[in-house]
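pinned: reference chain
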Amino acid sequence: QVQLVESGGGLVQPGGSLRLSCAASGSIFSINLMGWYCQAPGKQRELVAAITSGGSTKYADSVKGRFTISRDNAKNTVYLQMNSLTPEDTAVYYCNLINISVRGVYWGQGTQVTVSS
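pinned: its structure tokens
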């Protein structure tokens, strides 16, 4: 029903920046929640940031002040601006979408972010 395609991951130096993008297609309801999660090797998948269709946001404590989530509803795309990156941010980042009214949950394939010198 919904496909999510992430882009923008890669290798950056500590202190650098990346912007992740996630383009959604398919049966996307107007009332929805989109977000970014990360999963490092040997760790569980954790919420990084989320944003409602109305623009309300939520962030993990570890990224507050460094990351910014935004969305373009016309393009069905969500972004994650990642600044002041540290090696601890190294993980696979997954895009997520929830269609509230039908309780549908969808995940992207994931994009690797590596922060290293």
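why pinned: The chain has no helices and eleven strands. The mean pLDDT is 96.
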